[in-house]
Design brief:
Elements (H helix, E strand, L loop, with lengths): L13 E5 L5 E5 L2 E3 L7 H19 L3 E7 L2 E7 L5 E8 L20 E9 L9 H7 L25 E9 L38 H8 L8 H13 L7 E5 L8 H16 L3 E6 L19 H6 L1 H4 L14 E2 L6 E3 L13 H14 L2 E6 L6 H8 L3 E7 L2 H17 L1 H8 L2 E5 L11 H17 L5 E5 L17 H15 L3
Parallel strand pairs: 1-4, 9-13, 9-14, 10-12, 10-13, 14-15, 15-16
Antiparallel strand pairs: 1-2, 2-3, 4-5, 5-6, 7-8, 11-12
Helix pairs in contact: 1-2, 4-13, 5-13, 8-9, 10-11
Length: about 500
């Protein structure tokens, strides 16, 4: 019985690519798997599918694979027991195979063939080698059978099994076999079209868990699916995008974890991408970002930067001059632009001042992560949204924080245009980081986790992504440091940063 394509997960992303220069590769979640070179086109297909079968066995479930070769492209479903099902296949223009001869008026309509494999088990042998697996998939549907005769083929999972096939033919005579036209003669190729360089990345061995332990002992092991997913998140946050990107972290309720979210996103993006990153406290008066981060050797704030904007925007100004106005985070590699902390001051940042500060910062930084106040009607809040590329809405697992987050998104959606698009493409980060959880044990802790999941599920239909962050005491009070977090919390924030980066 074939598997419904909708029941097979599309994760990890798998591509099997066969080239007309005699090479092939299988790319799993962005990492290339080795496929032996040489041989005929069908032998390369078989070798590539053998690698995919190995991945299905590792995951112990069917996987999807996008196939590409000189004759066309499509999608297969590959099972751990070597069964291959064709989902789609589109021949390349000019490479379509000849169809079976048309029937004469005296011949009935073409027969419909249903192939039902019958596998009789043999003795249990040793696990199949890569070569045996490749031989088993040598006659798989890549490219698939013609549309008139859909075939699902079961390959014996073990070399000792035997295979027999029962055919049920409905109406008419047995159709003739399709005739494949002669291959086009090979013409001389230009040296410009040939390269000896291998561009596919090499899959690095496992570094985590028992697989990593065996690798360090000299037994090269492929990484687990969890490690592959972590590597993909790292790759995502490590990219450089053309032009600067601005992230706005917003929630109309205080205590929703806005400032820790700004710090953690800035730290992860700066650490992995190496891009110049600044966290900007865009509170209309005084915010708390400066209290949760390292202070430099000066007291300057955003107001000082605005006052010096003409000099900072001058073509003759050295890039290092920005250090006079920001506070560098020595361990986490990003800078902080503080809000005004003058207790006697009553200046509120205007929309025009937001424009000036943003112009200065995007000259010196590739990534700008903006903290915000609690008033969505404030001029600086609204102008921040105008400059935003990706919206992030943090919320702690408390009802009023979640309701404030919902109202924030609703307000943006009601404005239409750019604001509404930001709301639909937002990333919601649900944090379990509440001080009350310090004393929670047993049933109370389970209820807190269940409440966080309920809130996450409630936001999921309305935004692009929702990420949950576990409780971590290092996020509750004092300066926030990435290295002070527990490993599970670091991994969750990496996933959150990757979700944000995908919106760029």
């Amino acid at each position: 019985m074939s598997t419904a394509s909708t029941e097979v997960l599309a994760f990890p992303t798998i591509r099997a690519i066969v080239r007309d220069n005699g090479t092939a590769e299988v790319v799993v979640a962005g990492n290339s798997r080795l496929v032996p070179d040489g041989g005929t086109l069908q032998e390369l297909r078989s070798s590539a599918l053998a690698v995919v079968v190995g991945e299905a066995k590792t995951l112990n479930r069917p996987v999807r694979v996008q196939i590409e070769d000189p004759e066309g492209h499509g999608e297969l479903i590959v099972h751990p027991d070597n069964k291959i099902e064709s989902v789609s296949y589109e021949p390349s223009p000019g490479r379509r195979r000849a169809q079976a001869p048309a029937t004469t008026p005296e011949t009935a309509a073409p027969a419909v063939i249903e192939t039902v494999p019958v596998v009789s088990p043999g003795p249990t042998p040793a696990p199949a080698s890569v070569e045996e697996t490749a031989a088993a998939v040598d006659h798989q549907p890549w490219p698939p059978a013609p549309e008139e005769a859909k075939v699902t083929t079961d390959i014996p999972a073990t070399p000792g099994a035997t295979r027999s096939t029962t055919q049920r033919i409905t109406g008419g005579e047995e159709p003739q076999a399709a005739v494949t036209g002669p291959e086009a003669p090979v013409t001389g190729r230009s040296l410009k079209e040939t390269s000896f360089l291998v561009s596919a990345p090499v899959l690095e061995p496992a570094t985590q868990g028992w697989r990593g332990t065996l690798t360090r002992l000299g037994f090269r092991m492929d990484p687990s699916p969890e490690e592959v997913a972590e590597r993909e998140d790292i790759r995502t946050v490590s990219q450089h995008w053309p032009g600067p990107r601005t992230i706005a972290v917003v929630n109309r309720k205080g205590g929703a974890n806005k400032t820790p979210t700004v710090v953690m996103l800035s730290a992860i993006l700066a650490r992995y991408s190496g891009a110049a990153t600044v966290a900007w406290d865009n509170n209309e008066s005084q915010g708390t970002l400066g209290w949760r981060t390292e202070k430099g050797a000066h007291n300057r704030s955003v107001l000082d930067l605005i006052d010096s904007s003409t000099e900072l925007l001058s073509p003759s100004t050295n890039a290092a001059e920005i250090a006079k106005f920001v506070h560098h985070q020595t361990a986490d590699k990003f800078d902080v632009l503080r809000s005004d902390e003058n207790e006697e001051g009553d200046h509120e940042v205007t929309a025009e001042e937001v424009d000036i500060a943003h112009q200065v910062l995007t000259r010196y930084y590739r990534l700008v992560v903006m903290d915000s106040g609690n008033t969505a009607r404030a001029a600086n809040w609204r102008r921040m949204i105008d400059h935003t590329n990706q919206l992030v809405v943090p919320v702690t697992a408390i009802e009023d924080r979640a309701e404030a987050a919902r109202l924030t998104l609703q307000t943006l959606e009601s404005r239409g245009g750019h604001d509404a698009e930001l709301a639909r493409n937002a990333v919601v980060i649900v944090s379990e980081s509440t001080d009350a959880k310090r004393s929670m044990t047993g049933d109370a802790l389970k209820r807190a986790k269940a409440e966080a999941q309920r809130i996450a599920d409630g936001f999921e239909p309305f935004v692009r992504a929702v990420v949950r962050i576990p409780y971590d005491p290092a996020l509750v009070n004092g300066p926030i440091r990435y290295e002070a977090l527990q490993p599970a919390t670091q991994r969750a924030w990496l996933a959150a940063a990757a979700a944000v980066a995908k919106g760029f």
